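Input C-alpha coordinates:
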Protein backbone atom coordinates (compact mmCIF):
# COMPACT_ATOMS: atom_id res chain seq x y z
CA UNK A 1 0.00 0.00 0.00
CA UNK A 2 1.40 3.44 -0.88
CA UNK A 3 1.24 6.51 1.40
CA UNK A 4 -1.89 7.91 -0.28
CA UNK A 5 -3.75 4.63 0.22
CA UNK A 6 -2.58 4.48 3.83
CA UNK A 7 -3.83 8.01 4.43
CA UNK A 8 -7.22 7.29 2.85
CA UNK A 9 -7.58 4.16 4.97
CA UNK A 10 -6.63 6.15 8.08
CA UNK A 11 -9.14 8.91 7.30
CA UNK A 12 -12.00 6.42 6.70
CA UNK A 13 -12.33 5.77 10.44
CA UNK A 14 -15.68 6.71 12.02
CA UNK A 15 -13.78 8.31 14.94
CA UNK A 16 -10.24 9.37 15.80
CA UNK A 17 -8.03 9.86 18.84
CA UNK A 18 -5.04 12.08 19.52
CA UNK A 19 -2.42 10.60 21.84
CA UNK A 20 -0.40 13.48 23.18
CA UNK A 21 -3.26 15.97 22.99
CA UNK A 22 -2.23 19.21 24.72
CA UNK A 23 -4.01 22.14 26.35
CA UNK A 24 -1.35 24.55 25.06
CA UNK A 25 -2.61 25.85 21.71
CA UNK A 26 0.98 26.29 20.47
CA UNK A 27 1.72 22.57 20.74
CA UNK A 28 1.09 20.20 17.84
CA UNK A 29 -0.95 17.91 20.11
CA UNK A 30 -3.48 20.72 20.35
CA UNK A 31 -3.29 21.72 16.69
CA UNK A 32 -3.94 18.17 15.49
CA UNK A 33 -6.97 17.91 17.81
CA UNK A 34 -8.30 21.24 16.49
CA UNK A 35 -7.67 20.11 12.92
CA UNK A 36 -9.99 17.14 13.40
CA UNK A 37 -12.59 19.42 14.99
CA UNK A 38 -12.27 21.92 12.12
CA UNK A 39 -13.18 19.13 9.73
CA UNK A 40 -16.19 17.95 11.74
CA UNK A 41 -14.56 14.68 12.79
CA UNK A 42 -15.37 12.82 15.99
CA UNK A 43 -12.15 12.95 18.00
CA UNK A 44 -11.03 11.97 21.48
CA UNK A 45 -8.04 13.66 23.13
CA UNK A 46 -5.85 11.29 25.16
CA UNK A 47 -3.79 12.84 27.95
CA UNK A 48 -3.59 11.47 31.52
CA UNK A 49 -2.96 14.98 32.90
CA UNK A 50 -6.02 16.77 31.47
CA UNK A 51 -9.78 16.59 31.95
CA UNK A 52 -10.90 18.72 29.01
CA UNK A 53 -9.02 20.00 25.96
CA UNK A 54 -10.67 22.32 23.42
CA UNK A 55 -14.07 21.51 24.92
CA UNK A 56 -13.57 17.75 24.45
CA UNK A 57 -13.58 15.36 27.41
CA UNK A 58 -10.06 14.00 27.70
CA UNK A 59 -9.38 10.30 28.20
CA UNK A 60 -6.51 9.20 30.40
CA UNK A 61 -5.52 6.12 28.39
CA UNK A 62 -5.85 4.44 25.00
CA UNK A 63 -7.77 1.59 26.66
CA UNK A 64 -10.59 4.06 27.46
CA UNK A 65 -11.30 4.76 23.78
CA UNK A 66 -14.63 3.59 22.35
CA UNK A 67 -14.56 0.88 19.65
CA UNK A 68 -15.51 3.43 16.97
CA UNK A 69 -11.96 4.84 17.19
CA UNK A 70 -10.02 2.96 14.54
CA UNK A 71 -7.42 5.66 13.80
CA UNK A 72 -4.93 7.17 16.23
CA UNK A 73 -2.73 10.23 15.69
CA UNK A 74 0.38 10.09 17.84
CA UNK A 75 2.11 13.31 18.86
CA UNK A 76 4.47 12.16 21.60
CA UNK A 77 8.23 11.83 22.02
CA UNK A 78 9.49 8.65 20.28
CA UNK A 79 10.02 6.74 23.54
CA UNK A 80 6.41 7.45 24.55
CA UNK A 81 5.24 6.54 21.04
CA UNK A 82 6.53 3.01 21.63
CA UNK A 83 4.33 2.68 24.74
CA UNK A 84 1.34 4.26 22.98
CA UNK A 85 1.66 1.79 20.09
CA UNK A 86 1.68 -1.18 22.48
CA UNK A 87 -1.51 0.16 24.12
CA UNK A 88 -3.08 0.74 20.70
CA UNK A 89 -2.30 -2.83 19.64
CA UNK A 90 -4.06 -4.15 22.77
CA UNK A 91 -7.02 -1.86 22.05
CA UNK A 92 -7.37 -3.10 18.46
CA UNK A 93 -6.59 0.22 16.76
CA UNK A 94 -6.33 -0.38 13.01
CA UNK A 95 -4.52 2.78 11.85
CA UNK A 96 -1.73 4.82 13.44
CA UNK A 97 -0.29 8.07 12.13
CA UNK A 98 2.95 9.01 13.83
CA UNK A 99 3.25 12.72 13.29
CA UNK A 100 6.68 14.12 12.36
CA UNK A 101 8.88 14.00 15.45
CA UNK A 102 6.91 11.17 17.08
CA UNK A 103 8.28 8.42 14.85
CA UNK A 104 10.16 5.50 16.34
CA UNK A 105 11.64 2.59 14.36
CA UNK A 106 10.60 0.20 17.16
CA UNK A 107 7.03 1.55 17.19
CA UNK A 108 6.86 1.36 13.39
CA UNK A 109 8.05 -2.25 13.48
CA UNK A 110 5.51 -3.11 16.20
CA UNK A 111 2.71 -1.67 14.04
CA UNK A 112 3.81 -3.68 11.02
CA UNK A 113 4.09 -6.88 13.07
CA UNK A 114 0.54 -6.31 14.38
CA UNK A 115 -0.86 -5.65 10.88
CA UNK A 116 -1.65 -2.01 11.65
CA UNK A 117 -1.81 0.50 8.82
CA UNK A 118 0.98 2.87 9.88
CA UNK A 119 1.99 6.24 8.51
CA UNK A 120 5.43 7.29 9.71
CA UNK A 121 8.12 9.44 8.16
CA UNK A 122 5.55 10.97 5.88
CA UNK A 123 3.40 14.06 5.74
CA UNK A 124 1.76 15.76 8.71
CA UNK A 125 -2.01 15.45 9.07
CA UNK A 126 -2.19 19.24 9.42
CA UNK A 127 -0.98 19.57 5.83
CA UNK A 128 -3.07 16.69 4.47
CA UNK A 129 -6.38 17.86 5.98
CA UNK A 130 -5.60 21.57 5.88
CA UNK A 131 -5.34 23.31 9.24
CA UNK A 132 -6.38 26.87 10.05
CA UNK A 133 -4.70 28.23 13.18
CA UNK A 134 -7.20 31.05 13.69
CA UNK A 135 -10.12 28.64 14.18
CA UNK A 136 -11.72 28.68 17.65
CA UNK A 137 -14.26 26.00 18.67
CA UNK A 138 -17.74 26.82 19.95
CA UNK A 139 -17.41 25.98 23.63
Amino acid sequence: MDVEESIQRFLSSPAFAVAGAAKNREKYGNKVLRCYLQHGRTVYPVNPRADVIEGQACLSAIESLPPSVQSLSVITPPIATERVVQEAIKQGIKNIWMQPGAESPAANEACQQAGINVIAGGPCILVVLGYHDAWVPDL
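The CA atoms of residues 77 and 102 lie 5 Å apart. The helical segments are 3-11, 28-38, 78-91, 105-113, 125-129.
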